[in-house]
Amino acid sequence: MNRVKYFAAETWASLRKNIILAVAAIAVVAVSLGILGLVVMGWNMFTNMIKNAERKVGEVDLYLTDLTTTEELKAIEAFLASIPEVDAATIYFKSKDEALQEFKERFKDQPELWEYIDENPLPNSYELMTKDPKDVGVVVNRIKNDAPHPERIEDIKSASSAIEKLENIFDKFRQIGIVAVVALAVIAILLVSVTIQVAIFARRREIGIMKLVGATNWFIRWPFVIEGVFEGTVGSLVAILVVLSVKVWILDRLVESLQFLRLSFSAGLLAVLVPCILLGGVVIGALGSAYALGRFLEV
Amino acid sequence: MNRVKYFAAETWASLRKNIILAVAAIAVVAVSLGILGLVVMGWNMFTNMIKNAERKVGEVDLYLTDLTTTEELKAIEAFLASIPEVDAATIYFKSKDEALQEFKERFKDQPELWEYIDENPLPNSYELMTKDPKDVGVVVNRIKNDAPHPERIEDIKSASSAIEKLENIFDKFRQIGIVAVVALAVIAILLVSVTIQVAIFARRREIGIMKLVGATNWFIRWPFVIEGVFEGTVGSLVAILVVLSVKVWILDRLVESLQFLRLSFSAGLLAVLVPCILLGGVVIGALGSAYALGRFLEV
Amino acid sequence: MIRMRRVTKIYKGNVYALEDVTLDIEKGEFVFLVGPSGSGKTTFIKLLIKEEEPTSGQIYIADTNINQLRKWKVPYLRRKIGCVFQDFKLLPHKTVFQNVAYAMEVTGKSRRLIEQQVPEVLKLVGLGHKLDAFPDELSGGEQQRVAIARAFINRPPILLADEPTGNVDPSLGEGIVRLLEKINSTGTTVIVATHDKNIVDAFRKRVIALENGRIIRDQDRGVYGYE
Amino acid sequence: MIRMRRVTKIYKGNVYALEDVTLDIEKGEFVFLVGPSGSGKTTFIKLLIKEEEPTSGQIYIADTNINQLRKWKVPYLRRKIGCVFQDFKLLPHKTVFQNVAYAMEVTGKSRRLIEQQVPEVLKLVGLGHKLDAFPDELSGGEQQRVAIARAFINRPPILLADEPTGNVDPSLGEGIVRLLEKINSTGTTVIVATHDKNIVDAFRKRVIALENGRIIRDQDRGVYGYE
Ligand SMILES: Nc1ncnc2c1ncn2[C@@H]1O[C@H](COP(=O)(O)OP(=O)(O)OP(=O)(O)O)[C@@H](O)[C@H]1O
Ligand SMILES: Nc1ncnc2c1ncn2[C@@H]1O[C@H](COP(=O)(O)OP(=O)(O)OP(=O)(O)O)[C@@H](O)[C@H]1O
Ligand SMILES: [Mg+2]
Ligand SMILES: [Mg+2]
Questions:
Q1: How far is C211 from chain D (nearest CA, A)?
Q2: CB 3.0-4.6 Å disulfide test: which of B152, C80, D1, D156 passes with D82?
Q3: Does ipTM surpass 0.90 in this model?
């Protein structure tokens, strides 16, 4: 009890004496954890956007060789319409010419791409939508396996390749996110450690004296550990405040105004994020002081 | 000359002695300016995306009262087709029923929105595209001024209102960006100042002694000023490195993979951003040490 | 109580601060350690509290070889030795009271005991009225007396005092040594490093004289012996 | 050279460190300032270098009223006064050479001059072999001599020394005061605050005795006068 009181008093005195330092440490932790929180929220928003996008796309395109006869076309179209997962109403035959027209329209700013074409290189194709976007893979497989005249089918492009593309980007984002989060956590730990080191450094004569009058290492260490954890905790509280205000004042409004992007937050995100930031602050404080003590408080 | 050498030596000694502190200050400046650079680049990317989006949209919707007769409809449609800027082929009449159908489709997950509607509250409307997106405003004005049966026209919604919406968002982003940049700059200055204060604090006895043997205030100050500016400069160099690597390794790849979003960087962005970050570092260092000196080095 | 065997201390730069020192100091003795500036007196004291390690030789305190003492046991060794440092080594951010109290807190003494004993001991050295002053606010002699109070607040079996009268006037200096003598009479071993000829000559205790790190004289009831 | 007129210094806590002190010290005088611990000697010196401000009264140095001295002129006042502080006040991160050199650098002396004069002066105080040691690596007496070297490296017209022999053996102490006397003989005004009875009695200079902040005796060719 006596000890606890003593350490609390000692920590408080050190914090008050080195108020500048304490504020610096707290600010650094707050900035780091704040950024961390914002990255997680942004990441979550983006993930949800991608997921919403995934859910919307259910398109399959079927490219045919120029040798395909009208009969073969009919057989293929009938087969497509017979697939139960396909929305038959959406099956659409796009001719070579139509495709070229579309191509010219799309690249009308870059006429050099099509001006000197004499022969149309684009194929005829069927476009169709599945009833449920999830079934794109099933439909593609059915076409691959069961379609009549498979030798006429040059290529099948489906939304699943678009989804793959999106998922690749999403994966890249996840990787960047993880790297960023880890890097920031390390920076935060280093900076807390630096501030504790500075606190130790500023009091190194005092510490030397304490040792000379018989203080054990842990007796000297505890106040610094408590100081580090305290700073980490206060920093994380500030970060939580910042994160919550940014969410309420900026991100929520953004979600509202940019509805067309279908941004959104996962339910319960904050219920996980807030305790995590708090824990992060405590851990940063503890690791920071532990590292500083390990390096600078050996007898 | 002698003086300059002395100050350089003194600064270098102080930096080496307080290497922990120096690294902390540099890290903080680097983080702040790095974030600043990333915000500016992200902002630029977003601005360009919005601008690209603006250029694509050229849609005008014309809502009609339910009282409009078929004749009036015809007159209005004829008038619309006669406007030279309108792409006549795109004029499309969307009936009340079609509109309701679309509405139900769009909110099929929230049937409570339409389940209990007995009378269709949605209006008939004309949708059309201008030949050139820039002419949306002109078309809207012509309709407002010259359309027959103006009393039947309930409302005109145009891409320009969509553009306005986007521009509002963009403005909000700009405001957030400015606030963030200013806040970060202030934090960086405060943190550099804090580290210089700590350096002064750690050497306050030494400084006291220097004063007692006759050192003038500026003789004591210069090394700290140089130290602050040096730290700011090194910090900004680190930030520039970070910003450039993030651009090359992440953002450029993002622009490539997310082509559908039409992200891009303004030409010459880096040519402005890099010197600005450098200057920012110098200014942060100078202001930080000036503030610290002002507060803590009075006789 | 204290035994040194062929102790040599060489600082970097090949400075022989102590050379081949062998001596015994029994429990309850009172010893003056004298010698010119730089002769190794402070080094002698630093070795006893393990602030420095001897380059060679053995040091025993209460039959423990302190060279082989485990790191974590060092604080407990230091609690058995009260020490008045030549440069006082007061904690600048603590008041006089807190500075002395710290030495008790370290050993886990109760607050009640601390609040009772600290003012008592400070009164003994004539600082009963300066409890709440910070070291910066004291005269040199007052700081020295705080250091003395801190050194014996825990009634350690050994008391080392490095130049405890260097900053006080002769009469106060005599008072301080008389106090140390009183502490000695309760069984505490006392070693006083000093330059103060008058005091050494007046008290007639055992005198160990150092010169260039070597013991050149070890005399019971001795005198200062330099001019 | 130095004139004090009804100078009183009251520290917080209503401590009267100096009370109604009036005196004149002429150019080229050598003065011992004596008095028991806490009598105000250090405060007297602090007032002369404007480290503290008097609560009331006027102080003139070379006919300038230093109470009214502008802030930015204070460093130039201090360059005219060499001061040996009771706690030495050496820069812990500078070597012995650098510590003394600093006092010259401050005044913008050339590197060549510094490199020539500093070792010379350090040799004079017997530290020619410790140029590259840091204060931590010196004995108490050695540190004190570094402080003395720094105080007169710039040949100031006034030299104040607070307890300059507190940490050295009697013979070295006498040597130091002899050195101060030699400096004094070149025209420098020297004020030495000291407790060292033997030295005061041996040199027979003007003695100003303080007690509780008041001048109780001011005597030419005086003695220490306390027992
Ligand atoms: N940490 C150190 N590094 C190098 N040399 C040192 C160190 N400490 C002391 N010395 C040298 O060792 C010698 C003995 O020093 P010590 O402090 O023991 O002397 P002392 O007898 O206490 O002298 P004084 O009476 O002046 O205090 C001196 O020459 C000193 O310069
Ligand atoms: N900064 C301060 N704040 C409060 N009281 C102070 C301060 N400095 C000195 N004093 C008090 O003023 C009185 C005179 O102090 P001063 O240092 O002048 O004495 P001194 O004659 O130098 O003594 P010594 O011989 O012990 O060095 C003492 O009682 C001291 O406690
Ligand atoms: Mg010594
Ligand atoms: Mg004094």
A1: 12
A2: D156
A3: no
Nearest CA to CA, how far is C146 from chain D (Å)? 13
User: Up-side HSE of residue A88: CA atoms within 13 Å toward CB?
Assistant: 9
* Cβ atoms of residues A228 and A189 within 8 Å: no
Give domain status of residue C109, yes or no: yes
| Same domain membership, residue A78 and residue A197 | no
Looking at the domain assignment, is residue D1 inside a domain?
no
CATH of the domain at C110: 3.40.50.300
Is C90 close to A216, i.e. CB distance below 8 A?
no
The reply to whether D168 falls in a domain is yes
**Amino acid C169: pLDDT:** 85
What residues line ligand 1, using a CB cutoff of 6 Å? C 11-13, 15, 17, 35, 37-43, 86; D 136-142, 167
Domain residues for C37?
28-46+78-219
Q: What is the pLDDT of residues D158-196, one digit of tens each?
A: 999 999 988 888 888 898 899 899 999 999 999 999 988
Tell me the two tokens of residue B65. 């009262």
Residue B38 sits in the same domain as residue B109: no
Domain with B14, as residue range(s), is 2-53+163-296
Q: What is the mean pLDDT of residues D14-34?
A: 94
What residues have CB less than 8 Å from A69, skipping those under 6 apart? none
Q: For residue C116, what pLDDT band results from cuts at 50, 70 and 90?
A: very high
Ligand 2: does its nearest atom lie under 6 Å from the Cβ of D17? yes
Which residues lie near ion ligand 3 (Cβ < 5 Å)?
Answer: C 42, 86; D 139-140
For residue B205, give both structure tokens: 């006895």
Cα separation, A78 vs A75, in Å, equals: 5
Nearest CA-CA partner of A45 in A237, A281, A262, A244: A262
CA-based nearest residue in chain A for residue B29: A28
pLDDT band per the 50, 70, 90 thresholds, residue B116:
low
Q: Which of the residues C138, C195, C197, C224 would you substitute to probe the D interface, choosing the one with the greatest number of D C-beta atoms within 10 Å?
A: C195
